[in-house]
């Protein structure tokens, strides 16, 4: 049986985790424990519940009506006809805006395989596509990932940069609170398509994409289910975002938007919501 | 707020039940938005955080708080760090017995916080509602990180004892 001091220690650590007080190596260690130690995980969850008491005194604030529509769209849009059509309009507007600002010179990113019917490109515009644009600290390496949750595919573009000599670039998908999941080593080609495993498909909106520099075969043990690496040292990392869906710092978070010609641009600034596509500014890749 | 009803609504929303979501929204949105506005005074950011929280189907209050803190830190740092503390949700919703205990403990918390010595209650509140980490707190009070951690932990242990009594 654990003594009182050890229990206090464990409980304090759980509270620290729930409060988000830890960072650096202490956070890494606590995270690892969260996965290994169900007792600890339960204590953290307990603290999350207890601490929620601090919100009791916060006065409710009425939510602007337009937000409900936006949230509905995010949750239900794919099966609802009306907003579906509305979104076509928004996308077409975004497309026009993208094309105009890019001078109609969008870089051909999504090479159409030609296998789809005429209706297919239109569908592609409607599909909610998530993206993450990653850039190394020195700017020498740049990678864009476009994720189609329906097809469960990630298209990886590497317009700039190479792996360091004798090293490989490994792509990772990270779900908050879980170990990084490898999506494989990037090929030498600048474009690659990678299929997402089923359990990540449903979590696309929560994914963070990371790239690490590894030995040519990838991180040790990465394909071994039982000995997957708990932690990686990414050289670039970025959470996925939906095009034109959220406010962001234009210098730091550029977003790729697909248009009907399957070209992509990078939005360099945007309005308050995806309904406000008129203020999207786009530069081409 | 009837927790059992909220929980059942959340479970239905997970199955994309639109009517359930409308009910859940009517019952919770103002409270959750209040939390987002408290953490993120800039209205636009609070709106984005609320949207992000409601578009997921987990434990709502923690989600709203964690999401808002995450946005607040992203605004400060200019970039979102998935490794930022507070980002993770550890467990799904607790079972009914645990939920009852936690609700009771959560209700006691506001009374227990002010009883802690040396403004530790204020520090805990700041960590929760303003998303401060030990590093931030240590810098703010100009003390070594470990000193801050020891001081703060005494408050956390006292708080746990206070709530249990």
Helix content range of chain A: 25-40%
Order of helices and strands of chain B: HHHHHHHH
Rg of chain A: 22 Å
Most extensive chain interface and residues per partner: A-B, 63 and 74 residues
Q: Can you walk through the features of this model?
A:
Chain A has seven helices and twelve strands. Helices cover 31% and strands 24% of the residues of chain A. In chain A, α1 (4-19) crosses α3 and α2 (24-36) crosses α3 (38-51). Chain A is globular. Chain B contains eight helices and no strands. The longest helix of chain B has 22 residues, at 18-39. Chains A and B meet through α1, α2, α3, α4 and β9 of A and α2, α3, α4, α5 and α6 of B.
Q: How would you sum up this structure in a few lines?
A:
Chain A has 285 residues and is α+β, with helices and mostly antiparallel strands.
Provide key terms for this protein.
heterodimer; A: 285 residues; alpha+beta; four-stranded antiparallel beta sheet; 7 helices; 31% helix; globular; disordered C terminus; B: 165 residues; mainly alpha; 72% helix; 0% strand; flat
């Amino acid at each position: 049986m654990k003594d009182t001091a050890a229990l206090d220690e464990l409980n304090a650590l759980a509270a620290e985790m729930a409060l988000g007080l830890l960072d650096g190596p202490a956070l890494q260690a606590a995270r690892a424990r969260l996965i290994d130690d169900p007792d600890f995980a339960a204590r953290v969850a307990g603290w999350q519940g207890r601490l929620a008491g601090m919100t009791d005194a916060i006065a409710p604030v009425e939510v602007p009506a337009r937000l409900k529509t936006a949230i509905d769209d995010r949750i239900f849009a794919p099966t609802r006809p009306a907003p579906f059509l509305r979104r076509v309009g928004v996308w077409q507007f975004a497309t026009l805006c993208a094309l105009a600002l890019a001078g109609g010179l969008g870089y051909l990113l999504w090479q159409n395989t030609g296998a789809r019917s005429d209706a297919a490109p239109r569908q592609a515009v409607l599909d909610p596509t998530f993206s993450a644009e990653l850039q190394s600290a020195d700017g020498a390496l740049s990678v864009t990932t476009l994720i189609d949750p329906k097809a469960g595919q990630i298209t990886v573009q590497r317009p700039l940069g190479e792996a360091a000599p004798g090293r490989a670039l490994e792509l990772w998908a990270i779900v908050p609170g879980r170990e990084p999941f490898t999506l494989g080593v990037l090929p030498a080609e600048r474009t690659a398509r990678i299929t997402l495993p089923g359990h990540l498909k449903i979590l696309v909106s929560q994914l963070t994409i990371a790239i690490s520099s590894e030995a040519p075969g990838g991180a040790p043990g990465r394909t071994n289910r039982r000995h997957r690496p708990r932690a990686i040292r990414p050289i670039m990392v970025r959470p996925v975002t939906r095009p034109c869906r959220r406010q962001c710092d234009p210098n730091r978070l550029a977003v790729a938007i697909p248009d009907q010609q399957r070209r992509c641009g990078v939005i360099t600034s945007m309005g308050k919501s995806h309904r406000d596509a008129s203020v999207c500014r786009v530069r081409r890749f | 707020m009837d927790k059992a009803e909220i929980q059942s609504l959340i479970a239905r929303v997970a199955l994309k039940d639109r009517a359930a979501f409308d009910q859940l929204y009517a019952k919770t949105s103002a409270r959750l938005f209040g939390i987002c506005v408290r953490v993120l005074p800039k209205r636009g950011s609070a709106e984005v955080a609320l949207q992000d929280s409601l578009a997921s189907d987990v434990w709502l209050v923690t989600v709203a708080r964690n999401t808002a803190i995450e946005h607040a830190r992203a605004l400060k740092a200019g970039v979102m760090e998935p490794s930022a503390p507070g980002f993770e949700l550890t467990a799904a919703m607790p079972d009914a017995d645990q939920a009852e205990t936690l609700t009771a403990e959560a209700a006691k918390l506001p009374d227990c916080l002010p009883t802690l010595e040396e403004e530790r209650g204020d520090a805990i509140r700041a960590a929760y509602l303003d998303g401060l980490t030990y590093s931030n707190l240590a810098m703010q009070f100009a003390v070594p990180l470990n000193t801050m951690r020891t001081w703060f932990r005494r408050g956390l242990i006292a708080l746990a004892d206070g709530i249990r009594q």
